[in-house]
Amino acid sequence: MKHPVLGENVGLIAIRQIVLSDCSVEEYNPIFVSRTIVDRRFFLSNRSACAIFPLYRYEEDNNKKLIKIPNIKPEFLKLIKEKYNATPEDFLYYAYAVLHDPKYRERYAEFLKIDFPRIPLYDKETFDKYKQIGKELVELHLMKKDIPIDLAGKIKGESLKVDTITIAKMFG
User: Fold this and answer.
1) pTM to 2 decimals?
2) For residues 45 and 17, is the Cβ–Cβ distance under 8 A?
């Protein structure tokens, strides 16, 4: 896939089906973002490989110059512009927050096990709230933003030397 590497881009990573009969993971969580291409086995599933949906695609014009084009149907771009006054990035942020919402995941749990997620369109106020949350999530997941961590009183001693390492078993 050329679109994540030809220019500035971000892609939504999803998986079509998830069946994990051999481990204890039961909650749907295969949604992430990336600025680059990813391995097809980015998520753990014994049924399906992940797909990346780049926000933009790059095509050459008549002068062989690359043009950045939203990878969203023009009709849908028009709809989100009219309904929410939103850009393609705004919609990505909104969708990312919706897909991480525990209420959404609970409501559509069975459907999310068998197909790609669908994005509901809420009212403008809800859209704007999700958009802000999604923007923060994307920035955190792409490591564009730091999470302030207060370690005061949690580190004992003068050194950060690791004495022992404990490895927890993830799957049953």
Assistant:
1) 0.73
2) yes
